[in-house]
Design goal:
The protein is of the alpha+beta class. It has one domain. A hairpin with a 4-residue loop joins β1 and β2. α1 packs antiparallel against α2.
Length: about 80
């Protein structure tokens, strides 16, 4: 409960504009948090300060919207 409160209260400090989804597998101790943020470094620091990384492995995977990627490939962005 403390991590949830901390995550929400400090998100803006680390340029996380939106928590889109928050899923967890309790038995595996795996969390998947989908956020909208400016950089992976900001997400990393957020996870450290919120306490998530104290007992979980944090893997940050930058994603792009498929349509945006296709426009870049076609040179129509």
């Amino acid at each position: 409960m403390q991590i949830d409160e901390k995550l929400k209260s400090i998100s803006a400090k680390y340029n996380v504009s939106k928590i889109i989804g928050f899923y967890m597998s309790v038995l595996e101790h795996k969390w998947m948090i989908i956020v909208e943020a400016e950089s992976a470094h900001d997400i990393e620091t957020l996870c450290i300060e919120a306490g998530i990384s104290a007992f979980n492995t944090v893997k940050i995977v930058p994603l792009n919207n498929f349509d945006v990627v296709m426009k870049r490939i076609k040179g129509t962005s």
